């Protein structure tokens, strides 16, 4: 069952690529919506390494916010 063996270098590369992508997208999404850009970047980076689907949710959250700190209604 060779398909069950994971190459750790490949897994690490995928995690790093996901972290870089989520950091950039979260920063761009939060650009005009908060003053704490460093906090958004650090949160996205930590979430990417701990549980990477959470970083996707974090990016979606910042993409959904309006510039006046309100939210888009999903009615």
Descriptive overview:
The protein has 75 residues and is mainly alpha-helical. Helices cover 65% and strands 0% of the residues. The chain has helices at 8-29, 37-50, 52-64. Helix 1 packs parallel to helix 3 (52-64). The radius of gyration is 15 Å and the shape is elongated. The chain crosses the membrane at residues 6-27, 39-63.
Task: Give a quick set of tags describing it.
75 residues; 3 helices; transmembrane; mainly alpha; single chain
Helix content bin: 55-70%
Structural class: mainly alpha
The sequence of SSEs as H and E is HHH
How many runs of DSSP E, i.e. beta strands?
0
Low-confidence stretches: none
Which value, in Å, is the CA radius of gyration?
Answer: 15 Å
Number of helices: 3
What is the 3D form? elongated
Compute the number of structural domains. Answer: 1
Largest sheet: none
Keywords: Membrane, Transmembrane, Transmembrane helix
Transmembrane segments: 6-27, 39-63
Topology:
Blueprint: H1 8-29, H2 37-50, H3 52-64
Helix pairs in contact: 1-2, 1-3, 2-3
Put the structure in a nutshell.
With 75 residues, this protein is an all-alpha fold. It contains three helices and no strands. It has one domain (7-64).
């Amino acid at each position: 069952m060779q398909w069950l063996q994971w190459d750790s270098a490949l897994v690490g590369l995928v995690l790093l690529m996901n972290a870089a992508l989520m950091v950039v997208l979260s920063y761009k999404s939060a650009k005009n919506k908060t003053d704490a850009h460093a906090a958004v970047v650090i949160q996205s980076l930590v979430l990417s390494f701990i549980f990477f689907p959470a970083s996707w949710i974090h990016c979606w959250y910042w993409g959904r916010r309006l510039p006046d700190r309100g939210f888009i209604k999903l009615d």
